[in-house]
Amino acid sequence: MFELKITSGTKKIAYKNLSLAVKFLVDDGTLKKNISNIERIFNCKLTELQKNNFVSKEIDEIRISKPSGKPDEIIIKKIKLNDQFDADFFRDYISSLTERISNEQIKFLHINVPSFNIFKKYFDEEEYYYQTFVEGIYFGNYSFDKYKSEKKSAKPLEVFFYSENEKKFKNAINSANIVMNAVYFVRDLQNEPSNELTPELLAKRISAEAKKYGVKATVFDEREIAKRKMGGLIAVGKGSVNKPRFIILEYKPAVKAEKNKKSKAKKIALVGKGMTFDTGGISLKPAKSMGEMKNDMAGASVVAGTILAAAKNKLPVHLIGLIPTAENMPSGEAFKPGDIVKTASGKTIEIDDTDAEGRVILADALYFASQLKPNQIIDLATLTGACVVALGEFVAGLFTKNDELADNLYKSGMKTFDRVWRLPLWDDYHKLNESSVADVKNLGGRWGGAISAAKFLENFVDKKIPWAHLDIAGPSIHNDSRHYTKKYMTGFGVRLLIDYLKKIG
Fold first, then answer.
1. Under a CB-based contact definition with an 8 Å cutoff, are residues 171 and 502 in contact?
2. For a disulfide at 418, which of 45, 324, 463, 496, Cβ 3.0-4.6 Å?
3. What's the rounded Cα separation, in Å, for the pair 352 and 55?
4. Given 91, 312, 359, 495, which residue is catalytic?
5. Do the annotations mark residue 462 as ligand-binding?
């Protein structure tokens, strides 16, 4: 993993100090001509076999070691604009290259960014094309080796991009730096083992980071949680020695004076499920893959990372982050199937399954959010395996009755490739959560599990407030390295929400 220092310019630099130079060529019929230009610029000579294989599509990379008086090494990469090419393919392409060279002794990397004109049909905006390029560098560079005894120390790497449009590229770099550093923060939290990230420690980590960004952080301990009658959060956390916390983050944009006009920033409440570990409680989960349940706080980390990035970006939107965090453990004090829990709203929940605990803590948080009277509420939670069964691991489930909110989140998802897919929130499903002994029960039965979970949450949201629920159980974790997010925790949701907030701010 590199310590990245990313800069750009429109003037070509002297190559003699470089460790590695990367030149991209687009397979558009000009490969032979452009290879000749590279030979001239770098004062090197490729064999006819190399050139012929490169042009004839048999290879997509040429590596030249130690050309005379120039960089230690040159990589010539071919980009194929075929049916598979899109923004995410490009991000993955850049990520793969970065990951491959991350183990090499490189101090100064020069990348010649292909002209935006070549890629206009694949990117709506020039700045987003450049941002995608930089995101690829960050994704390829990420690793989590904090607990390895023989981890490699982070090497400083200066990456210099040569581009045709320096102003737009610098804007893109600044934006990508902010967002991707937030993604790194989120992924680090998600990858932490639960013995190192209890509810109390999660609150401390997030609060410390918030202070750096000028974001206000307030933490309720178990006494304050009880005082506020958050019975759902209390019940779920009862079985653990590590007691629950309720984290509140607030970012307010600077007030700008405007002549003859008063404008008020939209107030958006972001709510994130923060189960630092979930055994399932008395309704114990199977042992296989239970270790992945350290990521059951993915929603919480994304809410924190998004607000930090928004503050750094100075987005013109008022954000409030609400994070209920607990451990779900079996013990003599744990809540049990058959229990009835009274929430902060006054509504009661029959506990049908203690492994459906996320919705129980979110009940208190969503009610708290509604009391703040925001313009919108968006919650994120690794809520159901049913959503993963329905949609797989590359897309989150989106539930809302507000078409405008759904449309904007969908568009931001398609742009950033933190994608969402709308599922029904019809009232036909309301009866699935009916209880004969309480206002609602916490499990809706076998069918439509992701939908019944969303319908459960709906009971605790003010119906006058536009609300969206994102079930991120699938895309928050990947079990192999096929994708540029690599194996394990992905940080899904930060890029989606930042793009969305920019759009509505």
1. no
2. 496
3. 64
4. 359
5. no
Q: Specify the DSSP class assigned to residue 361.
A: H
Q: Residue 349: is it exposed, middle or buried by C-beta count within 10 angstroms (0-12/13-18/19+)?
A: buried
Q: Which of 78, 80, 267, 285 is catalytic?
A: 285
How is the beta sheet containing 340-342 ordered, strand by strand?
340-342, 348-350, 440-441
CATH class of the 197-254+265-504 domain in this structure: alpha beta
Helix segments in 102-249, DSSP class H:
126-141, 166-191, 199-212, 222-227, 231-237
How far apart, in whole angstroms, are the C-alpha atoms of residue 377 and residue 225? 21
Alpha carbons within 13 A on the beta-carbon side of 74: 24
Higher-confidence residue: 51 or 415? Answer: 415
Quickly state the pLDDT bin for 17 (edges 50, 70, 90): low
Residue 401 has pLDDT above 80, yes or no: yes
Higher pLDDT, 309 or 114: 309
Q: Is 285 a catalytic residue?
A: yes
Q: Report the candidate in 492, 459, 474, 295 with the shortest Cα–Cα distance to residue 386.
A: 474
What local confidence, expressed as pLDDT, does residue 257 receive?
Answer: 43
CA max distance for the chain? 82
| In the chain, ranges of CATH 3.40.220.10 domains | 2-180
What is the pTM for the complete model shown? 0.94
**Any binding-site annotation on 145?**
no
Q: Return d(Cα 245, Cα 68) in angstroms, integer.
A: 61
Active site residue 359: yes
Instruction: Tell me whether residue 273 is annotated as binding.
Output: yes
- Residue 240: which of 191, 204, 286, 293 has the closest Cα? 293
- Tell whether 92 is in a known binding site: no
Q: Where along the chain do the CATH 3.40.630.10 domains lie? A: 197-254+265-504
245-251 and 420-422 as β-strands: parallel, antiparallel, unpaired?
Answer: unpaired
